[in-house]
Amino acid sequence: MALTQIPLPGARIGFDPHWLPPDQADALLEALLRDVPWEVHRIRLFGREHASPRLSCWIGDADARYRYSGTLFEPRPWPRALEPVRERLAETLQVGGDNVFNSVLANRYRDGRDAMGWHSDDEAELGSEPLIGSLSLGATRRFLLRHRSEPSRRLALELPHGSLLVMSGPTQLHYRHALPRTRRPVGERVNLTFRRIVAGECGDTGRGSRR
Ligand SMILES: O=C(O)CCC(=O)C(=O)O
Ligand SMILES: [Fe+2]
């Protein structure tokens, strides 16, 4: 099925709630929970280091180094289970050659207390209008987008098992996004944001920082 475009002024958002069939999504989730070297990333906020409230792993080609929230990440190699997903995503989004996704930030939200704060994926390494493919697995969580200066421009989306959310064009320039905590009892969720690092290692000029 094709991506549905969700209208939001100044953003480009595509969504397919059923991108990965449930049996493939189940198998991928199981493989990632087992094979990814999950760790607590330390992030810097206002000059102080904190443990981020989730487990993470930065995965990518050897040259795709990435700096965010003040820390430089050397990528871990691609788990085998992710290779076909990377290929299918490139087909869905019609990216190839020099534009293939060369990295993924994997995040694991163990329960409703794990979350991600307001940020934009606007690090210099991603280029000016990054294409970001976000695949969700496991428990459904609510994803929020909010315009930087026009509070009425906002969107809330439930991201179910196997869903694909695509942010592109000027989305990161104009909007922040977050994955808030919830008091509802929810199971584990894994999210994969596929990205393309265009500039090797650069300075940390991103305005956002994931909390
Ligand atoms: O978990 C999510 O859906 C959001 C993840 C995210 O925004 C990121 O990795 O930059
Ligand atoms: Fe993000």
From TrEMBL:
Keyword Oxidoreductase: yes
Upper taxonomic lineage: Bacteria, Pseudomonadati, Pseudomonadota, Gammaproteobacteria, Lysobacterales
Domain Fe2OG dioxygenase: 100-198
Annotated signal sequence range: none
Pfam families tied to this protein: 2OG-FeII_Oxy_2
UniProt source species: Marilutibacter chinensis
Keywords linked to the UniProt accession: Dioxygenase, Oxidoreductase
Protein name: Alpha-ketoglutarate-dependent dioxygenase AlkB
Gene3D superfamilies for the chain: Alpha-ketoglutarate-dependent dioxygenase AlkB-like
Molecular function terms from GO: dioxygenase activity
InterPro entries hit by this protein: AlkB-like, AlkB-like_sf, ALKBH3, Oxoglu/Fe-dep_dioxygenase_dom
